Amino acid sequence: MIQIALSLLLAVLLLGLMLHWALQADIPSKDLSAAWDTLGCLRTRFFPASLVDRILDDSDFLFVNSQKDRQILVLLEAERKAIVMYWLRNTRRQVKLLMIFHVKSARHYAKLAPRLEMRLASDYVSFLVVCDLLRILVRMRGPFRARKFARRTVAAGSRFCAASEQILMITKDPHAEIQEAPRNA
Amino acid sequence: MSNQLVWSICIALETLLLARAMRTGLLKTFPVFYGYIACVLAKDLLSIPIYTHSPSLYAPFYYTAEFLLAAIGYGILAEIYNRSLKNYSGVARFFRILFAIAFLAVVLRVGVSSVGTGLAAFSRAVAGLERDLRQLQAVLLSCLLVLFTYYRIRVGRNVRGLVIGYSVLVASEVITLSFALHPATGFGAFMRGAEPAIYVVSLLIWLTTLRAAQAETPFDMPCRIEQDYERLAAVTRTLLLRARAQLGRVARA
């Protein structure tokens, strides 16, 4: 019975992958040039931290909450939610472009490092999962109430990520102009 | 009646595919694939006379032919691999590593499962071996498709059709063979009946996509940054980690 279930699973997986590949659109050169721009942009000014801090600063929320005006509170939440959702969408799009740029470049390299590539892929997938979970949480519970749940989600992701950061230290070019990833990642 | 109709359609489509390959020159491009089709055609043509005149020989003939076809299937995989990844040596190396891992895993599994089973009936043993070969092909095709999707490998219309048709065929074989060692009831019986029809679908896909020899997809030359792979991977990874750190800030804010 297990054998039959495994065979069915394998066949469905194969057909699913084949359909996904067959329907996958090729990246137009316009997108690749956008990826170039994204890489340049990300390397110089990567998601300004002050902006994120400002969006999620709950002092406004606490102040409005203390005024006991329900209407303003609802309005504040709706606006902050829209901004956070926009920021998450934009972050996801930029990271996606970054990965497209990476794979379209790395695929030509003869000495492609499978282990490094697999780590990159797992980092990317875990980023997407965390990002999508945050989007769902923010959409369902609002930016302020979602934080507690999101904290747990990101903590789990960070534990996984901490080990993989070590690889970066090994492969990093000493002359690279990039900055080290924050320790609290 | 319907079985005979499907069988006749298969023979007609296989003959058409081979005749067209000789005309278009694709026979030289995909020799193993067309060799496979020729073997299937020979098996189809010999099946009825053997079944009619020597029914006792039919089961060994059928299972041996199926086993040989499953083995030739690896040649088709090699052909797909050679054609699609010839300009992507790094990805090809990646696939060779995945191939070695998958092959080792299946050999180990077959070895473990065959210990203590003793001498099984010939057809049963061959059916089991064929099932394992097809499963390994399904795993390898899946690995290849994951690499195609992840690295956005561009392939020509011919190779594309070959991959799609062969994936459909292998998937149906994997399902059917998993029921081969069990009584034909329910879904197993349905799949045994549907397998020839699914094979017709594969043949139609090949007939459509291998209509004419298609030029290879132009190879886009890597630019300057693409030559510095380690640096590029490090930059990508740093930015990915930083993006996730920013998500952490959202959660902790």
Explain what this protein looks like in three dimensions.
The complex is a heterodimer of chains A (185) and B (253). Helix content of chain A is 80%, strand content 0%. With 185 residues, chain A is mainly α. Chain A has one domain. In chain A, helix 4 (59-66) packs antiparallel against helix 5 and helix 6 packs antiparallel against helix 7 (147-171). The radius of gyration of chain A is 21 Å and the shape is extended. The termini of chain A are far apart. The longest helix of chain B has 30 residues, at 55-84. Chain B has a single domain, classed as Rhopdopsin 7-helix transmembrane proteins (Up-down Bundle).
Mean pLDDT of chain B: 80
Provide a count of the helices of chain B: 9
> How many separate helices of chain A?
7
Care to count the β-strands of chain A? 0
Write down the CATH class of chain B.
Mainly Alpha
Characterize the overall form of chain A: extended
Number of domains of chain A: 1
How much strand of chain B? under 5%
Beta-strand residue percentage of chain A: under 5%
**Secondary-structure element series of chain A:** HHHHHHH
Instruction: Return the structural class of chain B.
Output: mainly alpha
Low-confidence stretches of chain A: 159-185
* Through-space gap between termini of chain B: 71 Å
SSE string of chain B: HHHHHHHHH
Main sheet characteristics of chain B: none
The percentage helix of chain B is over 70%
Give the % helix of chain A: over 70%
Structural class of chain A: mainly alpha
Low-pLDDT regions of chain B: none
Cα distance spanning the termini of chain A: 44 Å
Gyration radius over CA of chain A: 21 Å
Task: Set down the secondary structure blueprint.
The complex is a heterodimer of chains A (185) and B (253).
Chain A lengths: L1 H22 L5 H16 L4 H8 L2 H8 L3 H37 L7 H32 L1 H25 L14
Helix pairs in contact in A: 2-5, 4-5, 5-6, 6-7
Chain B lengths: L1 H23 L1 H4 L1 H23 L1 H30 L4 H26 L7 H29 L6 H24 L5 H24 L19 H24 L1
